Amino acid sequence: MVLVILLCIAVDHSFRCETIDQHNTVCFFNSKCRCWTDQDLRHVDCSNANMTDIPNFPPKTDILNINSNYIEVLQNNTFENLTNLLELDLSHNRLIRIELNAFLGLGKLQKLSLEANRLNYTKESFDTAVLNPLKSLLVLNVKHQEILNILPGKMIRKLHYLRNLKTDLVSSTEGVAFGKEFSSFAHLTLLKAGTCKLEMGNNNTFIYLPNLEIIHLSGCTISQFGKGCIFVT
Ligand SMILES: *[C@@H]1O[C@H](CO)[C@@H](O)[C@H](O)[C@H]1NC(C)=O
Ligand SMILES: *[C@@H]1O[C@H](CO)[C@@H](O)[C@H](O)[C@H]1NC(C)=O
Ligand SMILES: *[C@@H]1O[C@H](CO)[C@@H](O)[C@H](O)[C@H]1NC(C)=O
Ligand SMILES: *[C@@H]1O[C@H](CO)[C@@H](O)[C@H](O)[C@H]1NC(C)=O
Ligand SMILES: *[C@@H]1O[C@H](CO)[C@@H](O)[C@H](O)[C@H]1NC(C)=O
């Protein structure tokens, strides 16, 4: 009898190590996070948990939400074992730096939010190759960084399937908001501006993004409109 009970505990324990609890309850691996399964997708929600470091997660996590914490740096290999991860939300943290190999392993990731952090896209903050492992990315949100700065095109040049980009926007007095390096995004159809200052809006503003179908500029201050409509391509 004792043996049977011990066996059950052992089996139960190994099961719990591999899966995420079925209900929206405290996760077995971290009491600050909540876990549940919905339509076969395993969710882990560690939002609003006062976290300053990113803990380890079970490899089978599909949707991971770490928003609204106090994380400043994403270190190399943080997500290396989350090879099934589809969505990652790191919005509303204090990210100032993302190390080169921080996103290694996230080859299936479709959706990434870095909204409302402190990234400035300098070499110290965000190496140009940081996003390269995200080969399946469809949706990228980097809007509302603390300092207004446009996401350099070279940082997303390997994201060939990108469809939906949310970013802060600035344009030069000539009107160009996105340079030539954006012209390879054949699937990019939706653009949403976060913090946005256009010195000039004209027929050059989106000239290198000819496949855009939807553009949200409601957060923009536009100082001048040039001759020629900005929406004619
Ligand atoms: C986070 O910290 C605040 C302020 O100290 C506290 O009120 C809150 O309960 C904490 N939340 C969690 C999930 O620990
Ligand atoms: C990934 O898995 C390996 C092997 O189990 C382990 O040594 C490593 O600490 C894990 N990394 C993270 C960030 O969890
Ligand atoms: C992160 O990995 C890159 C590439 O291997 C390396 O150059 C860099 O020094 C690492 N960063 C840290 C803080 O270890
Ligand atoms: C950008 O962020 C890095 C990392 O925090 C910092 O070292 C650098 O001074 C910042 N540069 C500017 C221009 O804000
Ligand atoms: C943009 O508008 C200017 C002024 O109307 C015009 O001279 C120029 O040819 C236009 N460029 C394109 C690519 O349509």
Automatic annotation (TrEMBL):
Gene3D superfamilies: Ribonuclease Inhibitor (3.80.10.10). It comes from the Eukaryota. The keyword ATP-binding does not apply. This is LRRNT domain-containing protein. GO terms for cellular component: extracellular space. Residues 1-17 form the signal peptide. SUPFAM superfamilies: L domain-like. Keywords: Leucine-rich repeat, Repeat, Signal.
